[in-house]
Amino acid sequence: MDFQVVVLAGGCSKNLTPLVSKEVPKPLLPVANRPVLYYVLHQLEQSNLKDLIVVVEGEDAALVVSSWIFGTFVDRLHVEIAAVPEDIGTAGAIRAISQHLTKKDILVVSGDLVSDVPPGAVAATHRRHDAVVTAMLCSVPVSGLSESGSSGGKDKAKKPGRYNIIGLDPSKQFLLHIATGAEIEKDTRLQKRVIRAVGLMEIRSDLMDAHMYAFKRSVLQEVLDRKDTFQSLKQDVLPYLVRTQLKTEALLDGIPQAEENGTGKVISQNNQALVSRILANASTPSFHELCSVDPGGSFPTRKTHKCCVYIASNSNYCVRLNSIQAFMDVNRDVTGEADHLLSDTSSDRNNINGPSPKLGTKTTVGPHCMLGEGSEMGDKCQVKRSVVGRHCRIGSHVKVVNSVVMNHVTIGDGCIIQGSVICSNVQLQERVVLKDCQVGAGFVVTAGSEYKGESLARKEK
To answer: Beta strand 105-110 with 207-216: parallel, antiparallel or unpaired?
Structure first.
């Protein structure tokens, strides 16, 4: 498909402290022992969307991410790495790389999205309607309770900013209203112009903005130029385009006319069938066209534009890794109910193991676990619904439940780890007990220590 793709990969996200570090920025946080960015790039490759700009916050993080991408996807993707300042915002990041955007349509994808929805389907929907923006929506994920009963309980108590109030037309093709973040706590106000035009609006609160957008490049660039205070695509740009879709001033001068749609080619047969089906359904006149003509219907009197949606099926998996709890959830899901995302990984009795883990006598590894290459476990250990990274050394009589252990971790005899994240190069000495904790890279937990709900990390020098 003739789209230019921008992957907003992030950097050292503060809400993922202490999981992120200079050595492991957010794009490289492991999901089932693969960087989270892998899942986005793999899906783009499968949809034959291979012309990418990967935007990383911070020069140091950009170097680390660049090294991983070019080592993993060499000769598979055409990738340009762009470093932008930290905390610039998603709209600010697009504004910063604007001079590199050249194609008619731009697909913007969050680098923390773990999903089996083909990006090509979103792109095809956008082309079918000749839309100014097309947003992908999916069902709000429901976090199940962990076996320990309280994994990340503080994080799961309330998350109003994660939900959206969304208004759709009866055909569920056009986005008529969207409220996000703090706006959800306020009274919802709907535009009379839109209600009159469409006749009926369906209000939904069970859908999540997945941070995958197709934009008409000329419109996006002009909005970012004129609205220089816009910092967020989700909270600023998308609501603005939705609010103004039936107003004369919405479509700015100088925007080119619609070009003929192209079908493109998709690698996956399933993706190809889906994209072809979308493009084959020729768009019928919408309320946008009806609003743009005079009462006699003879000629256009005002400019309008279309804001469309692609709604993923309830059977699709779609979660963003944007919090510590989400990190836990995604790792649990990808080794469990969403293990089809690891279709090219060998599986043995519901366990996904690296090529050479070594297990001691009477050590048990339960279903939906992952053990990384070169890791070793002593005698009488238990692992349940957990991911253990590469080259870890785990002593005897150790229990790991609902946890993620990253690479090169040393765990002493008799340790108990529940609902916790142990980052790379951590050392847990003998008889350490951790429940609902996060331990930052390189930290040493002394023998016999017990922590609950703590974040442990080395002080920055």
So the answer is: antiparallel
